[in-house]
Amino acid sequence: MSVNEQVLSYPIPNDAALDPPAEWAELRSQCPVAHVKLPSGDQATLLTRYADVKEVLADPRFTRQLTAPDAARLSADGGGVFSSEFAQIIPDGGDEHQHWRRLVGKWFTAKRMAALRPAMTQMAEKLIDDMVERGAPGDLKAALGFPLPVYVICDMLGVPAADRDRFSYWSDTLLNLTRYTQAETEASQTEFFQYMSDHITAKRAEPGEDLLSELIAVGEPEDGGLSNIQILVTGMGLLVAGHETTANMIGKMVSMLLADRAHWERLLADPSLIRTTVEESLRMDANSGFGLPRYLREETEVSGTVLPRGTTVVCSMAAANRDESAFEAAAEMDLTRSPNPHLAFGAGAHSCLGQALARTELQVVLEVLLRKLPTLELAVPVAELERVEGLAVGGLSTVPVRW
Amino acid sequence: MKVVIDEDKCCGAGQCVLIAPEVFDQRDEDGIVILLESEPADDQHVLVREAAAVCPGAAIEVSA
Question: What is the pTM of this model?
Fold first, then answer.
């Protein structure tokens, strides 16, 4: 049956850990604006072409108001992070969003990231030493991929890394669209909210040099700062965003590079390719998760199809990133690809706030792994790598390696 | 080569600074792009074009 004749289930089931589902190419060429059925049973419109995804993500008519009464629910038990009422506290668009973005964005400049690099490198070296000491095979995700970004974001927010198990659980309940019941998700969010609320009260009393303390120091909204609840939700958002995303990407990137040994060898011979390799890994990530949902406030047209007001659109950046009309030899991993305008971080005013941080972490991990463990290899056949199911952000359950 | 930036479109992703630090910088107070060279030297042209192509806000315009 062709993709035109049925309502596809979304996310599209896919057993291959690193390869895209066959439906993507078919959708892009034959059905770029497709009806899909979400885990909740509600219908949405899936976009898979590069040009469409890029345009919609940068178009303010496609809002993030997934709590609207007629917006599609992503899963039967609420929609996790996308439908959280917390998400609505950060301004969605216009001047207010830009103001928020700039207050927080100053913490993620290229210069700040360059300054963090030496500490990140040390941390990566230490984590790899610990993994080597425990002996092969090791799980690169648990040993390095997960802890590194968590330590970094905890440090930026001034929260104790010792509480990281709790953060991981809270993140997971927000990001997993299917594993938890609504009651579990709500209880977890209440706990997380209380934790962050106490943390911010403590920072008000005793400021540090972290992002949250400085957001507090800017003052109240009338002084150009953020309200207490906005600071709180910003802290929650950054903590969640700093968890699963880069943590999973580290495992996927290294797996992709080891799956074809020629890539790893090429990087060993020429580490100057690290920067473009990180971008190409982000582009090639076929397991990036749900994509970005948007809610349409007014009727509009995409690729010649009229979308009525109230439509929920899902942008598959991962499918768009393999669009042959945007990338030459799109199915091939080319470590020298440049420019590489992939959409892994979204596009437009809402593109990932932490992208410079993610890039720096991925570059550091790759640089340190190549230097310290040049003989690194997957300890299982690629076919045995398993996806984590149900996450808004895709990943591998483990990344077994030896060296 | 002439480079023009649009501060309103800039989302502070920092890609331009990572790719062409001799041409672009970011303001410390909000991460918004600063154009250091509006007519960059020849050896910067490839990098500037790359920065413009990957800017998520499409905030960099390059002519000639």
Answer: 0.94
